[in-house]
Design brief:
By secondary structure, the protein is α/β, with parallel strands linked by helices. Helix content is about 35%, strand content about 15%. A six-stranded mixed sheet has the order 3-2-4-1-5-6. Helix 3 links the parallel strand 2 and strand 3. It is globular, with a radius of gyration of 17 Å. The chain starts with a strand and ends in a 6-residue tail after the last strand.
């Protein structure tokens, strides 16, 4: 089975470099234009099933990258981005004097976030949800599944399941881009080949 992991298109918060986890921003005009261009270029394979984070920016992205998809999207609550708690909606410049933020940066983003969640908590829920969704997809004999999610969600899943020795940040990807994972037989303890999502013919 081919698994396509796509990061949502740009929002205004992305353009302003604001932390957006639980925020529910829509796509901005630039984000929509970029997704439409990538879709015209043939960047996105056509899936049998689309699974989205519940956030509006992910659902809208699915609509633009697969405009002819006629089935309902499956919403997976636990594919949502990290809850950035007190950092939500703020930029580095607005937070750089905040002692809690400084401690979090010094932990390489692994520490607790006030009124939010840690990376470990986010990774645990994303990977558990991924296993559940893959078991269902294989039981229903899908050949191609697309996940339209967040950058953090993709990094969490691929750190755990990509073939080779990788770190969380090895799988950072730009808005509207992502990775292809090839899974012949699902095993929640397995690791699988992954390649960057690339325009066909290149």
């Amino acid at each position: 089975m081919q698994i396509i992991l796509v990061r949502h298109g740009k929002t205004q918060s992305n353009l302003e470099h604001r932390y957006q986890g639980r925020l529910n921003d829509p796509l901005c005009a630039q984000g929509i234009q970029e997704l439409q261009q990538k879709q015209i270029q043939g960047l996105y394979p056509v899936p049998d099933r689309i699974i989205c984070s519940p956030k509006l920016r992910c659902i809208q992205t699915a609509q633009f990258v697969c405009p002819f998809f006629s089935e309902d999207y499956l919403i997976e609550e636990d594919f949502r981005e990290t809850d950035f708690g007190d950092f939500e909606g703020k930029t580095y410049e607005e937070l750089k004097q905040d002692p809690d933020y400084i401690r979090w940066l010094e932990s390489n983003g692994e520490g607790e976030i006030p009124n939010g969640e840690s990376r470990h908590q986010m990774v645990q829920r994303c990977c558990k949800a991924f296993c559940n969704q893959m078991e269902q997809a294989f039981s229903q004999h899908y050949k191609c599944v697309m996940l339209v999610v967040h950058g953090g969600s993709i990094m969490a899943i691929l750190e755990q399941f990509a073939l080779g020795n990788h770190s969380f940040y090895d799988f950072h990807t730009q808005n509207g881009e992502g990775f292809l994972m090839t899974v012949d037989l699902w095993d929640s303890e397995g690791r699988y080949p992954v390649t960057p999502l690339a325009i066909r013919g290149e």
